[in-house]
Automatic annotation (TrEMBL):
Organismal lineage: Eukaryota, Viridiplantae, Streptophyta, Embryophyta, Tracheophyta
Protein family membership: Belongs to the UDP-glycosyltransferase family.
Signal peptide region: 1-27
Pfam families: UDPGT
Gene3D superfamilies cross-referenced by the UniProt entry: Glycogen Phosphorylase B
Protein name, per record: Glycosyltransferase
Keyword Glycosyltransferase among record annotations: yes
């Protein structure tokens, strides 16, 4: 058997997918896996994973669509749209190379569901197509019901939403909800902008996402990066009605249960050694991923709150943003804080000193926090961040959202105090521990996630 895997090379999508492929390769050692991804993304994820791939996985680079000597704008979606314009021909070329090098025809195609064109590639080859949904499944429903949501949004505008709302201001949309199976808790303002573009603002990325719902509904097997136990029942029932095999295989970017922490002396960033010197559940860990662009004014407000509160903090802050810190901040906070350009996040969250995670609410960050039983303070920025924050705060009730949706000195101090000092914070910590236990049970032998993974192995090896 020869399984081809198409990765979406942005955010944490590719890293999640290669982790799933490694698990599959170890479970199906007679099956060859060809992992197709851009060169830049491949270099990044294999550096990050720091592990040797199983012998039955081979990687191939696909063209990223970036012209020679291209100068990028500040728009983070620009890379995505250049890549999309290159698809599917870039994947087809790499696929031909994989077949030529291995001498084996492709027997099955696994692909990130964002790459909706992969269904047509599989159809042309007369092979099974198994899409993998990487974000939370709630966002999958927003793509399945995109047409209905857009119509509801249009009606909201015609029913009295002001011009500021029409221009993209979230204020009036914040309290507008919509009735879609399993999504009754969500508000229109939680949706990614690509779900609600006005026709004149359609982009290659929004068009790609708009095709997802129609394409995935053609398959009988969908792999989901999630646990069945965490769904609202109406959403689970709705998705099960659409897919014969809804395989909730758990958090595919993580090992469950989380591995034991390595000796702190092996951590070259110094984060674990610093955490060793702090008291249990007292540290605020702060990270907003690798993509989010944080306004300088918010960096300054957050820094001022950390300085005044005296709460121990570990801040993973990219070097290109470090210049936004107030003058003298690092020196004035060196006794109770640590700022690093990169932190071993899963290990930081697993450390007993970590008491709260201040996050942009990317799916992988949320999953890592749940897996380690750490409450969250939410400052969502883009994509599915707002939707994930809604789940954290209003559905699972395992975190708090920053007042007003943006960092202010007062709002940050209030959220930190609530989680780390107050009874409400203790209740939140108790709930996130309960969610963690659900996840661990589902990952154990005989658990739902374990059984779903076994079904997936059977599907790719018994084609």
């Amino acid at each position: 058997m020869h399984v081809a895997v198409f990765a979406f090379p942005f955010g944490c999508h590719a890293l999640s997918l290669i982790n799933l492929v490694q698990k599959l390769a170890r479970a199906a050692q007679e099956t060859q896996f060809s992992f197709l991804n851009t060169e830049e993304s491949n270099n990044s994820i294999f550096l990050a994973s720091r592990t040797n791939l199983p012998d039955n996985i081979k990687t191939y680079n696909v063209a990223d669509g970036v012209p020679l000597n291209h100068v990028f704008s500040a728009d983070p979606i620009e890379r995505v749209e250049l890549f999309i314009k290159e698809t599917p021909k870039n994947f087809k070329m790499a696929l031909d190379m994989a077949v030529a090098e291995t001498g084996q025809k492709i027997s099955c195609l696994i692909a990130d569901a964002f790459l909706s064109f992969s269904g047509s590639v599989a159809e042309d080859l007369s092979i099974p197509w198994i899409p993998v949904w990487i974000p939370v499944p709630h966002s999958l429903s927003t793509h399945i019901y995109t047409d209905m949501i857009r119509q509801h949004y249009a009606n909201s505008l015609s029913d009295g939403c002001s011009n500021s709302c029409r221009d993209g201001n979230d204020v009036e949309l914040e309290e507008k909800t919509f009735q879609i199976p399993g999504l009754s808790e969500l508000h229109i303002a939680d949706l990614p902008v690509e779900v609600l573009p006005r026709e004149a603002h359609e982009t290659p990325f929004s068009c790609l996402l708009g095709q997802i719902g129609n394409m995935v509904l053609k398959v009988d097997t969908l792999v989901v990066n999630f646990y069945q136990e965490l769904y609202p029942k109406p959403l689970l029932n709705d998705l099960k009605s659409k897919f014969s095999n809804l395989l909730n295989v758990g958090f595919i970017s993580l090992s469950m249960p989380p591995p034991s922490l390595p000796p702190s002396t092996e951590d070259t960033t110094g984060c674990l050694s610093w955490l060793d010197s702090q008291e249990s559940k007292t540290v605020a860990y702060i990270s907003f991923g690798t993509v989010a662009n944080i306004p300088q004014s918010e960096i300054e407000e957050l820094a001022e709150a950390l300085e005044v509160s005296r709460i121990p903090f570990l801040w993973s802050l990219r070097d290109n943003i470090k210049d936004c810190l107030p003058n003298g901040f690092l020196e004035r906070t060196r006794m109770h804080g640590k700022v690093v350009p990169w932190a071993p996040q899963t290990q930081v969250l697993a450390h007993s000193s970590t008491g709260v995670f201040m996050t942009h609410c990317g799916a992988n960050s949320v999953y890592e926090s749940i897996a380690n039983g750490v409450p969250m303070i939410c400052r969502p920025f883009f994509a599915d961040n707002k939707l994930n924050a809604r789940l954290i705060v209003d559905v699972w009730r395992i975190g708090e959202r920053i007042d007003g949706g943006v960092f202010t000195k007062t709002g940050v101090a209030k959220s930190l105090d609530l989680i780390l000092q107050h009874e409400q914070g203790r209740r939140i910590r108790s709930r996130v521990q309960a969610v963690k236990e659900l996840v661990l049970k589902a990952s154990a032998p005989g658990g739902h996630a374990t059984q779903a993974f076994k079904t997936l192995v059977e599907k790719i090896t018994l084609v």
